[in-house]
Amino acid sequence: MGIGKFTITDLDTFDWPNMNRQAGAFASTIGQPKLDTLASTLADINPEVDLHLMPGGINPGNIDEFLAGADLYMDSLDIFALDVRRKVFARCWELGIPAVTAAPMGMGTAFLAFRPGGMSFEDYFSLDGFGFEDQVLKFIVGVSPSMQQRHYLLNRGSVNLFEKKVPSTAIGIELAAGVACANAAKLLLGRGDVVVAPRGLHFDAYRNTLLKTWRPMGNRNPLQRFMFWYIKRMLRRARVG
């Protein structure tokens, strides 16, 4: 697609739980560094690819190096890495770099984009003043305001934010990648309609639905406050049960 320069970073090695949700995770790569594996894969796809590799993962001390020269930031941090995620999005905002995030939600994906001059990550998610578990839940509800996947999650006890357990399917992962990359291309080219916060998209292949969401004030919106309360109560009951 003409995108041939990437800065990628990771600090982990592949393990079996990565098999359903991470590119490069195969039986043959278990125990291998994710960064090296992905670099090799990218070089196999495009031998002329220009890669800047940063072992050790992203942290507050190397965010500027990570974003240096970037035209776009593609969010792929762990869902629980909220502290560094907030710092990366804030720095993107300061540097005028558009940022894209697409989360696998059941058998679908929820998409959000933040563009310079629009609503910021902090204004949308409003995480200040909440404990860690509530921040994670507010992030999930913020990315996925309609929470379509709640209609067919059979084992609600499989979601445990305290134990950092959030299930995913390969279907949702692939859809998330496609939606994120399609919108990334539009942002890079400055061509085509891109939905940006406080607007979002949620496509669910299981329910055959595509919803366009609009949440003025982000998580401060009354609909979001209700959804946060509702999902939190649902998960609490599942945990007790």
Brief write-up:
By secondary structure, the protein is of the alpha/beta class. It is 36% helix and 17% strand.
For the termini, the CA-CA separation is: 49 Å
- The string of secondary-structure elements, in order, is EHEHEHEEHHHEEH
CATH level 1 class label of the largest domain: Alpha Beta
Q: Give the strand order of the largest sheet, numbering strands 1, 2, ... along the chain.
A: 3-4-5-6-7
Summarize the amount of helix as a percent range. 25-40%
Form type: globular
Q: Bin the strand percentage.
A: 15-25%
Number of strands: 7
Q: Which topology of the largest domain does CATH recognise?
A: Rossmann fold
Low-confidence stretches: none
